[in-house]
Amino acid sequence: MLSRLTRPQALAVCALPVVALIATAVFAPLPFSLAQPGMTANVLGENKGTPVITISGAKTRTTSGQLRMTTIEATNPDTQVSLGDVLSAWFATDRAVMPRDAVYPSGETTKQIEQHNSAQMKESQDAATEAALDYLHLNGKDVKVTLKLADVGGPSAGLLFTLGIIDKLDGNGSGGDLTGGRNVAGTGTIDADGKVGAVGGVALKTQAARRDGATVFLVPKAECSDAKSELPKGLRLIPVTTLKSAVDSLVALESGKGSVAAC
C-alpha cells in the first residue's frame, strides 16, 4: 500500500541529503594548509641565545641596525583543514589558504618533510656563504662561516644570511653599516652566483616584519605584486633580483645617493 507525502513532508525528505552533503563538505578534510605570519630573527644578532652568524679567519666589525629574516607558520602536514577553516582564513588579512603541496612535498611523512626542510636550509646556508665570500673576493678556505638558526627550515633565509655575512665583514664598503642603522627585513633564496629567487608567502612575511619593527623589506622582484597586496603601513618595499642589486639599494638608501628600486 502506498501513501502520498504532503508537500512539506516531501521537501523535508529531499532536503535531508542536501543537508548531509553540506555537513560533509564543511567538516571533511581538504588538501590545504593555513598559514599566518611567523617568527623573524635578526641574523646580525642571536637566536635563542646563539649567534646566528659566526665568522673566523677574518676580521669582523661591530654592526648596528638589524637584518631580519622572516617566516610563515603553517598548519602541520597531517592537520585536517575543513571548509569552515578555509572560509574563515579566506577573509582574514593575517592568514592565508595555500595548497598543501605548495607548502609541503606531497607523499612524504612529517619526519621526511622535516628532513627535507633541514636539507634545504643547509644548502641555503652553504650558498649564502659562498655568495657572500665571492662578492667580497675572499677565499672560502681561509674564512670560515657558521650559520645557526634553530627551528627554521627551508631556503628562504638565503638572501638575509648573505647580507648578514657581508655586513659583519665589510659593512657598506665605506666604514658604515649596510643597514644604515635601520631595521631591515626581507626574504628570498640565493644561489652561489648571487641570484635571488622567489619564495612564496611574502604578504604574510611583510606583516611579520612590520610587527617586529622593520621599516624596509627586501622582496624578490617577481613577488612585488604579492607583497603589495597586504602591505602594512610604514614598510617600504625594495625589489631585488641579485645580491648586488640588494647591496646597491641598501647603500643608496643609507647614503641618500643613487636610486633605490621600488615595487
Automatic annotation (TrEMBL):
Domain of life: Bacteria
Entry coiled-coil feature ranges: none
Full protein name: Lon proteolytic domain-containing protein
Pfam families documented for this protein: Lon_C
Domain Lon proteolytic: 153-244
